[in-house]
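Build the 3D complex.
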Amino acid sequence: MNDRLKTLSKGIIDVSPLMIPVVPFGIIYGVIGMELGLSAYMTFGMSIIVFGGASQIVLLQLFSGGASSLVTITSVGAVNSRHLLYGAVFSEYLSHLKLTWKIILSYVLIDQAFAVSNSYFKENRNDNYKHYHLLGAGFTCWTIWQISTILGIVLGSVVPDELGLSFTISLTFLALLINDFRKFKNVIVMLVSGIVATIGYNTVPFQAYIIVAAISALLVATLLTLINLKKK
Amino acid sequence: MHWSTIIYCGIVTYLTRFSMIFLLKKDILNEKTKKVLSFVPSAIFPAIIFPPIFLDSTGSIDIESNPKILASVFAIIIGYFTRSIIGTIFAGLISYWFLIFVYYQ
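Done.
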């Protein structure tokens, strides 16, 4: 097997365990999209065009709350701002690549792919084909996400409302934070964000509560970071 | 929902992924900025998590006999000890179903 294929399949294998929670997440997304009355094309189209679980759920949630396009787009931008960090970390490894590669790899730079390829890049700095790892990991995520979206769309018509599947959205995001529950500062930031959003849900105009909550929480995070730096 | 909203969201999402890879030659974000960016999930996800849990369908705060709060607490406890993403989701969902179909019936 040549080196490129080897690295590509390493990416696929590395990311596979992380696909287990992605399947129910994708199904839930599809089911909820249908429950909210979106067409199957739109629900699926979103998975292709946006390709980001958190962003797509925020899109649905704000859509059902009647938010304007501007607020929806800004909120999605806020949710995705964490990708700036991923890109910044990866630019070190990918800066030598051709533009075409950068364009393709950016499309699949999602949380799970970042997590596994970042570990691979760190250990294999000198691998000339290391970007194939991200290609493999990213497109595995992409394929699984599209398939589970379709499953959700199909199941959407048969899953009864009473099961309260929309609660799994909250649970999924909760689960994505489990590693941060152990960090005291993160817990403070979480509480600020959650409380501001809950109060702001009815009081902040234009459904901009996610943006307001995120900015407040990030301000607190900045303060906490600065205090910590001073101590050192 | 309009297709245009979805397409704009797609563009915004793509740009957050592409911009840094494209713009930065080397890793030039300083440590402080990176530290703050690492708080982004903690700063944003709770804003998505909290309102549907604590608010009822009319938008007022519902703390008494709210199965979602209990189920979330249970999910956090399981998540804290197991560190399993899928375990957290299922612990929350199963305890929620127990509460609404058995306990509150």
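Residues 28 and 163 of chain A are 12 Å apart (CA to CA).
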